């Protein structure tokens, strides 16, 4: 009786919380939760296909560990719930490594070893450097690491005047273009892509707001799967695959 009671006690809370207690190691296909407006990491091409650096890296990891990858766009501020409920098995799309995320996910080895956050403004803006964000209005994407970066920002003139959040990176850029906010903070390679593909509309402020690394996020209990990912990433580093993919996506930003 006591053993049955303990069994029910531990399983029912997991069900009530919507936690998925299985293992993706047994699955032939891994469901990957992504953004679709974070170029060149993950975005849609002219044919509306999901492509990018993270996509290519994951496809190659899948080939090496014997699993296929199914990409699905998710609300970024709900990624943890999607992961823990089993709706997805992997979080991708420029997932910066933070102390908070180390506690939430089983993070893989880094897939980008130097990843920066910076600010993008309208081309007509008087701002020149990230120090000029003091007293300005700034947009960040809900669920992104940029929220904490902006919240902790202290330039020579103090913090930003107001920080707002939008559901996507593109929504932040729309706010910048319309003048609703004065700047948006996101990763540097995505800023560079949008500036390159919208000539005369946006400009990147000089100076980095943060420097870190990106990884893929798995459920905390997926230690075996994380080890498989790490072995594949190490092999890809050793045989030059990571370098080739980096040059493909970060060299041209196309």
From TrEMBL:
Keywords of the record: Signal
Residues of the signal peptide: 1-26
Domain of life: Bacteria
Domain Solute-binding protein family 3/N-terminal as annotated: residue spans: 29-253
Signal keyword on record: yes
Keyword Signal: yes
One Pfam family linked to the record: SBP_bac_3
Entry coiled-coil feature ranges: none
This protein's name: Solute-binding protein family 3/N-terminal domain-containing protein
